[in-house]
Amino acid sequence: MGKRTMENWLCLSGVIAAIFYFLHVLLGTLNYPGYDSLSQAVSDLTAVDSPSYQVASGLSNIYGALACLCCTIVIILIKREKSKLFKAGIVLYTIMNWVSFIGYTLFPLSGKGFIGTIQDIFHFYVVTIMVVLFSIVSLIFIFISGMKTEKYRALGVMGLIALILMFVGSLGTGLAPKEYFGLMERFSTFSVVLYTAVVGIFGFRFQGEKL
Question: Would the pLDDT of 117 be above 90?
Fold first, then answer.
């Protein structure tokens, strides 16, 4: 393993991002009297009218910025890699993080659940749909390239696991009783957060052809 560069170290921002995400969930819950993690979505914590808005949204924004930094640095690190499919997967995953960060910052929920304002419509039907589509395609690309190249295999397998958890969460929110909506939704959201940390660890260890 060669000497780590500044870019390698900056990739650990993905791990730090995950810490801030779970802090936003923990501290947001503590500052939201009556919040039910089993039935309520994580995004309720950053709803404009929620009592946890200031604390949770601040930590969530730090998470988003660090996640974007991590994935952008990984793109720089892998620019000379031969696998176009792998590079495309990482680029799409990075775009997903930027869309999520900017989109949810600009269009937080106006209130618990879905009230139906323009802000909520953009949150659910524009930002969320784009995030889901970019996530699915990027993880498929990373998985396929990982099956072809041993260097990306661990990242690819973890990507498949994240994708499966996303589908479990999506199906669960539609099929499970409303009392467990929040629990099912967390399968999707937490899998992306943790996978970003995995991408960060990959970038931290990445040494080009020497990996």
Answer: no
